[in-house]
Amino acid sequence: MIKIKVHSLFTIVLLATGLASAGPTDIDLSSRDRAELLHVATAVRAAILGGDTAAFLGFVSQTQGLVCTDTVYRYDKVAQYLRDKGSHLYMGLFDSQHFAAQCGKDYSPEYPATSDKAFFERSPDSSIEIAVSAKGYAEVTYSSGATDLYPLKYEFHKEAQGWKLVGA
User: Fold this and answer.
1) pLDDT band at 3 (very low <50, low <70, confident <90, very high)
2) Into how many domains does the chain fold?
3) Does residue 48 lie within any of the structural domains?
4) Could you list the residue range(s) of the whole structural domain that residue 35 is in?
5) N or C, which end of the chain has less CB nearby within 10 Å?
6) Residues 102, 90, 61, 13: is their CA dihedral positive or negative?
């Protein structure tokens, strides 16, 4: 895995291009794919920070849907849950207060229930690591450096339309 600090899209693209052949786990990921995935990962982060459910939905795979906590949700269900501010998906992405109230008992005191938006708000300099998980699939890990924030891991799939989110 390669750890890259996210400072600007320009920096990300330059680093991604230069580091594309850095290790054996990168064998299935061209420098172009790496740069595109970093661009998408940064845009997903921006959509979450901005509370933009429509933009977030645009990154979700229409063919595979989204896997959350070992359950596969079809694209239309993901869209429905993103419109419902009381859904676990919406709260987990955008609403820490309600997410903690509803799901906090399922989290350890070391890593309390935190929405992805709160994670990104608390870690503006979070790093992004990319690891190829299978042919055409890559895991993106956002790490904050804060001891009480567990890293976020998203799974992406390379589709005809580009890299699409398939797991959160």
Assistant:
1) very low
2) 1
3) yes
4) 2-79+121-167
5) N
6) negative
| 86 within a domain of the structure (yes/no) | no
Q: Is residue 70 in a domain?
A: yes
Check if the beta carbon of residue 163 is closer than 8 Å to that of residue 157: yes
The CATH number of residue 126's host domain is 3.10.450
Mean pLDDT of the chain: 83
- Over 50: is that where the pLDDT of 116 sits? yes
CA distances to 11, 130, 161 from 143, in Å: 18, 11, 27
What are the DSSP E strand ranges found in the chain? Answer: 2-5, 66-68, 71-73, 127-134, 137-143, 152-159, 162-167
- State yes or no: pLDDT of 23 exceeds 50: no
Tokens of 35: 């740069």
Mean pLDDT of 130-135: 93
